[in-house]
Amino acid sequence: MSLVFPEETNAAASLRIGLLGTGRVAAHLAPALLAAGHRLAFVWSRRPAAAQALAAALPGPPVPVLATLAAPLPPADLYLLALPDAALPAVLAAAAWPPGALVAHLAGAVGLNVFAAVPGVRGGVFYPLQTFSPGRAIAWPTVPLLIEADATDAAGRTALLALAHSLSPLVYELASAERLRLHVAAVFANNFTNHVLGIAGALLAEAHLPPDLLAPLIRETLDKATAQPPFAVQTGPAVRHDGPTLAAHQAALVPHPNWLAVYNALTASIQFQNALTSPTP
User: Which superfamily, per CATH, for 181-276?
Assistant: First the structure.
């Protein structure tokens, strides 16, 4: 079974962590690491000014800012790559990793095999299943953390588990293939939902209607979808095959062909899914 609920791991040990990246995830993760009792060996960014800004914003003793990856990296128990997926291979290849360095990326859709091209590096994954935005605090104890280590690297697994348990009780081990499926599901649940809500808000704004009109509906939809299987509680004109209403909606969306395409695609998907799950008469 690929999904494992691991045993409790000692989370009190302080780890020295090298943080590569200064984007949204890094900006939330860095202070959380310090609050959990870990130490930052350094911060590095492809944009030096961003590394300086993040280091200056962190509490406690000054955190060193690494100017280059070409020189041997400062020693650390773990190096975390909080970088865009596409940047991982280049950064892994460019860095002068200490022999036997434990390096973990934070990506949901990148496999453990990305480390295969970097001899002497012990690869791992530390994937926080959450959305990160500037100005919004993250309650780390509520964040599922998905970790993966090479099957032969017991010490790496122990370090990743310890780090994860120091931030959240929701710690799981998940292999690359299953984590990719989880990431796809997360994109549907978060990114696509957010985009559709953005379309809804824009349609209200066009009609000079207040956006909070939809707030009770959104809350009930999410509450219902997390309490019951969403397909089982689908409502609306698509599932009812309400032709006149669907046609009226489509006519109203003619000025927005991209949104009309989304509407038609979702309508077709709802009707297809409903046909699969409805009992045969």
Answer: ProC-like, C-terminal domain (1.10.1040.20)
